[in-house]
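In the lab's daily routine, each protein ends up as an entry in a very long ledger. A line of letters takes care of the sequence, but it says nothing directly about the fold. The three-dimensional part falls to structure tokens, numbers that each stand for a local backbone shape. The outcome of that step, for a single protein, is printed below.
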Amino acid sequence: MPVPKPHKDESQDDFISRCMHEVSQNSDRTNEQNLAICHQAWRDRNKQSMRRIDPEDYDDEDEFMSDCMDEMGDQEACETMWEEASLKRVTHKTHSEEVQGMEFVLSDETPDRLEDVIMSDGWDLKHFKNNPIALFNHNPHAPIGKWANVRVENKQLRGHLEMAPEGTSSRIDEIRRLIQAGILKAVSVGFRPIEQKRREGTDWGTIFVKSELVETSLVSVPANPNALAVAKSLKISPETMDLVFAGQGDKDRIRRRGFNGGHANRNGNGGRQMSTLAKRIQELEAQITAKRDALQEHVDKMDDSNVTNSDLEIMGKFNEDIARLTKVREGLLESEKSLGNSVAQDEPNPRNKSLVVTGSGRRKEEAVTPHVLVDRRADEPDLLDLFVRAATVAYFAKGWGRTIEETRLKIAEKYPKYKNDETKVITDIILRAASAPAMTTVAGWAQELAHTTYAELMPLLMPKAILTRLAPMGLTLGFGNAGRIVIPTRSRTPSLAGSFVGEGMPIPVRQGAFTSQTLTPKKMAVITTWTKEMDEHSIPAIEGLLREAIQVDTTVATDSVLIDANPATTIRPAGLLNGVAATPATAGGGIAALVGDIVAVVSAISTSTYGNVRNLAWLVNQTDMLRASMLTAVNTGIFPFAAQIAAGNLGGVPFIDSATVPAKTMILVDAADFVVVGGDAPRMEMSDQATLHMEDTAPLDLVSGSPGTAASPQRSLFQTDSLALRMIMPLNWLQRRAGTVAWVQNVTW
């Protein structure tokens, strides 16, 4: 049937409950699958509403919330939509210069590295001034104070930082000292663009004409030796240093590659400075590095969940510029190699010479350090450029939710260089690592970080009880204050039956004979112990678990005694099969054997009781009943006993099924003659002072015989700070008439 749709104003819990009821009908799916379908229907409902109402179409939060609640009726979902949309619209720009006390220039009209400009006269400060919280690193959970006197002055957005009072936290006190030392001086504004336009004369620059200030943060700075030295002298904690210096240091800085050739000297006539190939190559390296830094800044600013065509175009422009400059540099490297080889014809050691071109066009040989020349083919891609491509592919693969290879080929449709073999190889290499991943099973490599929890205790599946279902079909008694129960009955012989007597003849005088059966109190009992520490700290509580376990296990033990063939003793009652010979099983198997066994067992009881049967009941194994329900009549395909067994009877006689009954065994009992005394809820008693003989099979008196012999091992609950739970259950039973039990074993069907 179709998946139901959520009703308007219907809560999620109500919908899931209704949906589970509807999709579960006439379905072969599991409950887990149905639950997943219902949750997806609820999510789709929100998606449909989100498509109808878009927070991007609203400037006012109250107006959006009103329309969203009318449409969706879910305040939490509406608030989440507005917050996510607000975050997408927030742009961050960083400004850094010398700080005068706590007075900061938050932003000015200087173009940044992306050639963007924020117009100072377009700032909207109304909402920000309502709550001018100062954050650190744009972390909403790390407020450090508030901004005062935020205003536009001399084409600059300025503000005075009022730090939280000294002593608020050690982290804030350390940040205050770093500001005073002139180390922390970078401020980043988070703003929502209201009006913007393309900046003329640039490839991708933007002029933000009007902007709403959302938040302003003090931000960390790249590490440098001087700043680190000052911070250490101020006794700044390692944690704060890592936070302030962005966890960078020298290890994360990109090392710019250079060449060892020296700069050209001026010519002997005082002419212009010579321009060497090495210097030109160095200048190209600097341009390439700057482009890569700008590309990285652009990638960091992009929104993973909303990658626009403009973002891709800017990224492509960066990549094209980097590729063009790289190609020029490679051409110069190849030229340097060729010109160096021409010198080698006259010089015994040409690797120590570099060709210099002076301003007048004359050539001059200049000593350089060894290995200045790079043996590289002109068409060979730069390794760093390949790594940049691989990182770009990985970035967009995460944002688009695609595989690395799919993303590379998608980008290659617009930028063919991503399709070459070198890019594919480097992209694959980046995804591989020689080290093993952290695993929960590897000691010393993250196993210690794996959290252990315990679910709710799974109940032990035990056989179904026989005694508790058989007893209500017979006679149930209780000892009360009596020490025994006597059940009188008449002996079958001699008979008090009347006889035909002739006229005038004497009438026989006969006497009857009576007998009785006596039930004395018997009991089942057990003790178990645990320490006080286990009692106080176990989850779930161990006492409740042990109480339940004792009752369940005792039920199984009772049923085992009930259907065995052992005689009664002073401590236990007789089993139902005591003194009862098994009826031979019908040979041949199949449905004929089943019918034969039923007839034979019923006939055995009828013969023994002269047909006086009152309330018969089968005791059977449930596996045998399943097999019996699947027996078919010969050449018909009909299952004669299937309906009976499904209704809980066999041949019109109800059955009690339990795994305690041995397989291929059927016991027939006239339950009207079954008498049970006790068997109610057991008596549970606790102790923390007793001394016990810790023996589970043949416990002894603690001290017995003369001279006294102590049982071993013993345990004092008081001395060991332990607890003991004792179960006592009075129980006895008997079958009042002989011949009211019959059974068959090793059936062939």
In short: The first strand starts at residue 91 and ends at 96. The longest helix spans residues 309-344. The chain has a mean pLDDT of 78. Residues 440 and 447 are 4 Å apart (CA to CA).
